[in-house]
Amino acid sequence: MKGPDSGTAARRRFLGQMTGGLAAFAGLAAPGAAQPIVASLLDDHDAWMQLAQGEHRQIFHATSPGDGAPMLMARNFLDVYASAYGASPGHVSAVIGVHGSALPIGLNDAAWNKYELGKRISVNDPDTKEPAKRNVFAVGGPHSIDTVMGRGVVLLMCNVALKLTAGALARARSLAEGDVYDELRASLIPGAILVPGLVVALARAQEKGFTYVRAS
């Protein structure tokens, strides 16, 4: 991972790159606004599948960040299909679905800092060697979120897990659960898609022909 200074610049580029196209797909954000796609606000909870086209579609199920394992596996999936099978990007799609301790993968630096998410899920910052106060998976390497999403990988966030996390954080800090939930939901990184329940999204994806792999 890169240091804090280079990470800030990379995050700004990531925000700028992701906002336009994804906001247009969602139809929810004002022009130029950095808004996450919130699938639970769409009439079709399966709308995210439109972003994962082609005959080879795989969903990686992550319950922990695994030192970036979900992103590594998604990258390998795309790379091997291209190098060994000659498949072009339009024919191969990867999806990462997160809940449990993997949920913070899709939250921004502000949420990581305020709620000490690195400490909560036992993830250290490679620069400070202390519990991370920023999303160390967001930018800065071949397995980072910005890199794989730049290659078309779709990131799904479980709303049930988000509510459970908000409840736990609220109780620990004597805060209103609804307020914490609203803040976390607003803290999704650009491009992350909030689905009503990941367990249902996984099932519906397989019904539509996606293959399934447990990533962590």
Please describe what this structure looks like:
The chain is an alpha/beta fold and about 220 residues long. The protein has a single domain (about 5-215), classed as Hypothetical Protein Ychn, Chain: A. Helix content is about 40%, strand content about 10%. The protein is built from eight helices and five strands; from the N terminus they run αβαβαααβααβαβ. Strands 4-3-2-1-5 form a five-stranded parallel beta sheet, sandwiched between helices. α2 (about 70-85) links the parallel β1 and β2. α6 (about 160-175) packs across α7 (about 175-185). The longest helix has 23 residues, at about 5-25. The protein is globular. The two termini are about 20 Å apart. About 40% of the residues are buried.
List the helices and strands and how they pair.
Elements: H1 4-26, E1 56-62, H2 69-85, E2 92-98, H3 109-114, H4 117-120, H5 145-150, E3 154-158, H6 159-173, H7 177-186, E4 193-195, H8 198-207, E5 211-214
Parallel strand pairs: 1-2, 1-5, 2-3, 3-4
Entry summary:
The protein has 8 helices and 5 strands, in the order H-E-H-E-H-H-H-E-H-H-E-H-E.
Straight-line distance between termini = 20 Å
Kindly state the number of beta strands: 5
Strand content: 5-15%
CATH class reads Alpha Beta
Number of structural domains: 1
Low-confidence stretches: 1-42
Helix content: 40-55%
Architecture per CATH nomenclature, i.e. the level-2 architecture: 3-Layer(aba) Sandwich
Tally of individual helices: 8
Helix and strand element order = HEHEHHHEHHEHE
Mean pLDDT: 85
Question: Which homologous superfamily in CATH is the superfamily?
Answer: DsrEFH-like
Q: What's the story with the biggest beta sheet?
A: 5 strands, parallel
